[in-house]
Write a structure and sequence with these properties.
Elements (H helix, E strand, L loop, with lengths): L6 H21 L5 H10 L4 H30 L4 H28 L8 H9 L3
Helix pairs in contact: 1-3, 1-4, 2-3, 3-4, 3-5
Amino acid sequence: MDNLPPIENYSNSEDTATSKRLLFLYLIPILGFFPSLWTLYRRQGSREQLTVSRLSITLSFTWMLGYLFLTTGAATSDFFTLRLLILNSFFTSGYFLVSIWLIFRLIQGKSYRLPGFSNLAERMLRKY
């Protein structure tokens, strides 16, 4: 019993594990948007959680806008319908792949920042 580490070490490791799980949750495509929005709305969480939440919301909004524009274009166009639907599927696949790639980078302990998107997320959602 004398060789056990202090209790403070256990609570810190549990907080880190919980924080990492929340970061995974934020980066799940489409579903992670809602906990990310809730975290920014409450303005509670670590700096890392707020940063990943902003990135997740920016990626989700970008995907949603692109998806809506491409779908609308495909519905209204006669000539470009198939091309726009194929582009839409590539765009959606790209969103899912980027989200999964960020999750793997988080597992590896590497940076989860995306050039361009992270800066855009910080500028747009800094006040939140």
